[in-house]
Amino acid sequence: MNGPKVPSDEMTALSATDPACGRRSLERFGRNVLKNLERWSRAVAPAPSAKMLRPALPAVAATLATLYAVVVSMFVLDATASHWARHEPDWVRGAFEKITNFGLSAWFLIPFAAILLWLAAVISPALSRRSQGVLTALAARFGFLFLAIGVPGLFVAIVKRLIGRARPYVGGGGHDDPFAYMPFVWRPEYASMPSGHATTVVSAAIAIGAIWPRTRFVMWLYAIIIMFSRVFVLAHHPSDVIAGALTGAAGAYLVRRWFAARHLVFCARDLRSYPGPSWKRIKAALGEVVGGVADATEHGNAPSD
User: Fold this and answer.
1) Across 91-100, 260-269, 286-295, least confident range
2) CA 248 to chain centre
3) Which residue of 24, 44, 90, 301 is 20 to 30 Å from 214, comparing CA positions?
């Protein structure tokens, strides 16, 4: 004898709250993430030709001029700037202590990584080809932004501790010695050159400006304010900031050329960014993703991987 029939809407509710259903969905999304990250890594990983990474003559000239500015600053500007910063009003120091925290790389890397992981989770053959193309184009752009900011930042985080230059606040009695070094000590007070904040904000200004040119003015204004703040709070000498800016610019430039060599995001001939998907297509793709997830949840399944 058959039992009482469960109404269809009640079955839907039971399906949606079934722990096994949720576990299957997470497993499928996890497989999507691994598969897409592997595919994207294969697209980026092959090393381009040495010709593509060879810097242009203006870039070499700019690098040499910046290095000259670093050396001059060490002898002429660093001690004076630190002495001046020590005697600034307390309210100025307090304001820049708050401002300088906005130069941390986490403000960029965490959201970009989260967006990449979400895109990796939702891109699947269950979507239309157009939506897959739109979301993949977005993933390439956010992947570029993540690497263009993260790679120079990682490089500086290691190199500055190997160089071991003392920060301005290390000098006792209100005296700053720009030539105090303790290489390889791996202590934060001896990790002044190059400035990590300057590396982050300059690489972010270049990378974001390359994708969205209309943001360049705002991004460079932001970068300049953060770089000045590092001197105001006695975290860095001016030469540290200049060296960090050079490292950030060089790192973002090389990552941009690396992507261009793979015909990703940028044109290999002139490094201009390819046109991105329109807002209309992005909204349509997101709508398809949301609709697909809702439909899969209703039927107790995840989008196909």
Assistant:
1) 286-295
2) 11
3) 44
